[in-house]
Amino acid sequence: MPAGGDPCGAGGPSFRDGCIKSRFTKLWVAGGAPKTGVSVSRAKRHEGGIWQRRFWDHRIRDEEDLIRHVNYIHYNPIKHGLVRCPHAWPHSSFLRWVQEGSPFKVLIFKRIA
């Protein structure tokens, strides 16, 4: 076990991801979270309806790669028709980045190709 005794700190990204999701889900449900529908496939695997099954583990290579990923995150709600512009999404960091003068200020407005 790593220093501090946190078992989620041991293992690779998949292990940590599973551990964090498990802890969060238990606390969320204990806090009165609404029940979500679960498909037959998920029920067979003892999965809940909160998390997606897979994740994409990616190490940010450089500043350009970081900008590309931040743009993806900022424009995702638009792509899915949830809002018309990134600052309208209440959970987005886009407006804060613009107001605080992000180090990527000029590049952040580039549309993902």
Uncertain spans: 108-113
- Give the overall shape: extended
From N to C, what is the helix and strand string? HHHH
Residues in helix, %: 40-55%
Mean of residue pLDDT values: 76
Strand content: under 5%
User: Biggest sheet: strands, sense, closure?
Assistant: none
Rounded to an integer in angstroms, the radius of gyration calculated over CA atoms is 18 Å
Tally of strands? 0
- Which structural class is indicated by helix and strand composition? mainly alpha
The separation of the N and C termini measures 43 Å
- Structure annotation, total helices: 4
Compute the number of structural domains: 2
Keywords:
2 domains; disordered C terminus; 113 residues; mainly alpha; 4 helices; single chain
Walkthrough of the structure:
- The longest helix has 18 residues, at 13-30.
- This protein folds into two domains: 1-57, no CATH class; 63-109, no CATH class.
- Helices cover 42% and strands 0% of the residues.
- The chain has four helices and no strands.
- With 113 residues, the chain is mainly alpha-helical.
- The protein is extended, with a radius of gyration of 18 Å.
- It has helices at residues 13-30, 40-44, 63-79, 94-100.
SSE layout:
Blueprint: H1 13-30, H2 40-44, H3 63-79, H4 94-100
